[in-house]
Amino acid sequence: MNELGTCSPEPLQTKDSFRFRCHPGVPCFLVCCRNVRMLLYPYDVLRLKQCLRMHSADFLARHVELCEGSHQYFPGLKLRLSEQEGNPCPFLTEEGCGVYQDRPSACRTYPLERGVRKETQQAGLTSLYFLTRHPWCKGHEEPHQYTLRQWDREQELYDWNLYNDYWAELDAFFSRNPWAGEGKAGPLQQLAFMVCYNIDAFRAYTEEHRLVEQYRLQKNERRALQNSDAALLVFGFKWLEGVLGGRKQLLAR
Ligand code: SF4
Ligand code: SF4
Fold it and tell me: Can you count the helices (H) and strands (E) in the chain?
């Protein structure tokens, strides 16, 4: 639903609680899974393609559209909605969300919106949560109260936040236009697009170019890269930043 909502002017503090409950008994159940503008981050794509047992390239071709990213130097992705009446999310079933365990960050976090802040160059990212309200969402009228920590735990936000933070750091680097004057969709930007959004193609690329072997990594790190798409995504982010002239986070052998 694209009606405009409101957002709390200040981020919630850890000690704050908010009133909300979403369950099949609310009158608006699944209203928010229709006609929604849903941005997808690299880890969202990775989890959804795993859940649907699709190659990431097929997932992109079928379920994703390019959109404006957070700045002009790299595109964002949004979910392609079904053309059926009401434009439902393609993963919506009669019983509810068909990808619930792997649903994207935006669905997990709602009715909160998460931003991040970097206090110093050396520091990690700090989360900021804002409470949003849309007129169609009746979850705010339910009596249940959550603290931020309870919401985080119940929605299992940890992994999504972790990998979204890696992405936020890389995207901030992209915002400095590291494409060596290539402009949009040049070879370097296409390489970056593959690393960020098409993890199965990047896996094939690492094997073809024997990429992992070129860096000093512990045995357990190599094993993780073989077995985990998420580990490969983080490796890819670090590798990419080095290739594009940013921080060298991987040591060559
Ligand atoms: S992914 Fe699931 S929760 Fe999110 S909009 Fe689609 S059906 Fe709804
Ligand atoms: S309560 Fe809000 S989040 Fe839950 S189904 Fe209704 S509109 Fe969606």
Answer: 9, 10
